[in-house]
Amino acid sequence: MPSYISGPGLGLSLPQSLYPSELQNAPYDFSNNKNTLAPGTALQVPAGDWYLSLGMYLVLQYLDPVTNQWTTAASGGWETGVMHVTSDGFNLRVANLTGCVVAASITNAGSGYAQATTTITVTSVALQGNSAPTFLPIVGGALVASGGTLAANGAGYGINPLVFIPAPPPASNNANGVGGIPANGYPVLSSGTLTGFTFTNQGAGYPSAPPIVILPSPFDPNFLAGSSITLASLVVTLTASGSITGVIVTNNGAPLANASLANITLTVGGAGSAASLTAVVMQTVVSATVSGVGVGYSSTTFAGITSVGGVPPAGAIAATSDSFGLSWKPRPLQAGIQVAGTATTTLTSGQAATIFDGGLFEGVPSPALLPLSGTAPSTLATIALVMGSRPDITILQPAP
Questions:
Q1: Segment (H or E) for 223
Q2: What's the predicted TM-score (pTM) here?
Q3: d(CA 134, CA 132)
Q4: Which residues pair with 340 in a beta bridge?
């Protein structure tokens, strides 16, 4: 079969101009393969094949055809490495969303809302630009198992079967005019029989209850051995009519001002009542300082700082990918702080840490101070974190 010509001394082609500047038959120019993305900006991946390397705080996203929302496929840092991607020039992007709203947690679903009149507005927010995030609320149309359990439990399963739940119709075919969010979930297996079903996302915007298909896994040892499997079945009905069941971010907007990420307020308007939302912001640690003096640290050069938590609020609708921690890849803080003094080694109030990796979060983490050696300090220092955004670099190299 044909192959590309390659070998020692034959390198990759020079980087291309991502958005060609040639006009009036000007000479062809070539581009840098490194691009800096400020917080709140995104780079559309041009059509073609590319070697792509994300910076520590960038995400790779595709435009989800079901929800029409940019969805994170990979987040930055050490877990991605160099990726080979193929783009059509429109539906794939690299984005720096640090400091930006990426979702909204439904803290109270409310009641009595109508799709046509329900709105979400942004108030009490300090932005680094003049573009506030925008949101699309979805009312009703969530799924629940009819009778609270499976219609038939089945038998003979060796491992959990696969469950296929159709997506709600898109906006063009949906009676609500806005589309919806697909539901998904998994069955609970015990001794070859399904004893229940758990929704990881109950979905939103379904105009009617869809048919559910449950099939044995092709890797089920009983299925491979030809053993008899009695199929289970699940019947679902609609729930949460008149309540906020989903929120789609239609524009991430400009990043929030550093140290002001908690000041954004989302207000639900319309015919209903009692619904409330909490903005979910992708963020990183931009600074860490000692807020309470620590005494008795070892005379090591640095004390380490890491973090715990930083997850988004679970919200009132518990069965969502956010509440299960499945929507993005968090990464903890890595920082160090100089220990002062010799006889009595201390960490003084206001002392700043060195940030090696600010981490990536969708909530505010709790700092954890780690003495790197020696005995435990007599007085443990406390650390204050400032959350926010920072620029980053992506490498986009044409692939053969």
A1: helix 221-224
A2: 0.86
A3: 7
A4: 346
pLDDT in tens, 226-275: 788 999 999 999 999 999 999 999 999 999 988 777 788 999 999 999 99
28: buried, middle or exposed (CB in 10 Å: 19+, 13-18, 0-12)? Answer: exposed
CA gap 116, 178 in Å, rounded: 9
Q: pLDDT tens for residues 266-317?
A: 999 999 999 999 998 999 999 999 888 887 776 655 678 999 988 887 776 6
Of how many residues is the chain composed? 400
Which H or E element spans position 224? helix 221-224
Query: What tokens were used for 29?
Result: 């120019």
392: tokens are 């980053």
Looking up tokens 């099939």 gives: 215
- Identify the three-state secondary structure at position 244: strand
Q: Taking a C-beta distance cutoff of 8 angstroms, is the pair 137, 164 a contact? A: no
- The string over 155-176, giving b where at least 16 C-beta atoms fall within 10 Å of a residue's C-beta and e elsewhere, is eebbeebebebebbbeeeebeb
Structure tokens at 158: 């060796």
Q: Which two tokens stand for residue 55?
A: 């910076």
Cα three-residue angle 275-279-284, rounded to 5 degrees = 165
Residues whose CB is less than 8 angstroms from the CB of residue 51 and which lie 6 or more positions away in sequence, other chains included = 12, 82, 83, 84, 395, 396, 397, 398, 399
Question: From the centroid of its chain, how far is CA 190?
Answer: 32
Return the amino acid letter for 302: F
Rg (CA), the chain: 26
